[in-house]
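ok so for the tutorial part 2 we go from a plain amino acid sequence to predicted structure tokens. step 1 is just haveing the sequence, like this:
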Amino acid sequence: MELLDIVDENGMPAGAVVSREKAHAQGIRHRTSHVWLARKREGKLEILLQKRCKTKDSWPGCYDISSAGHIPAGVDFIPSALRELREELGVEAAPEELIFCGNRHICADGVFHGQPFHDRQYSRVFALWRDQNEFRLQKEEIDSARWMELDACLEAVRQNTIAHCIYPEELEMVKAALMQ
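step 2 — the prediction. this is what the tokens look like for a chain of 180 residues:
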């Protein structure tokens, strides 16, 4: 069973833990790390999107953040982000390579696989420069990965022309951090 810290509105552990399943069933706030891989090609900024497995408990078959995951109880944002990069994409990175983009509060409700799903996340968002095409995908999590020009991705997300679970505000946050 995956245990998560219950956190306050600032992402600080409140001294109790909850199972991932219960957190999503009851809408209990927990933490996640998000890492967007970025590269420049022909003068354009590109980001890596992962396509979630069809068996995921939420947003199956949708394009998502390059690498993201729930933070296990007792673990902090950066170690969790680096672990998710290794597990999901086979990407190794040092903590100092992560570019802090900001923090986000996510509140989403839906039904997946016939079950109610209430997501309350405090997310720390990072970017990471990587120019590579080969990844070791974690097949239980990811069906595929693809690079996409960032502005085209923003437009596709805003217009819903791709199946996704991406927040345009987060892409804007990443773009601003990478353009500095």
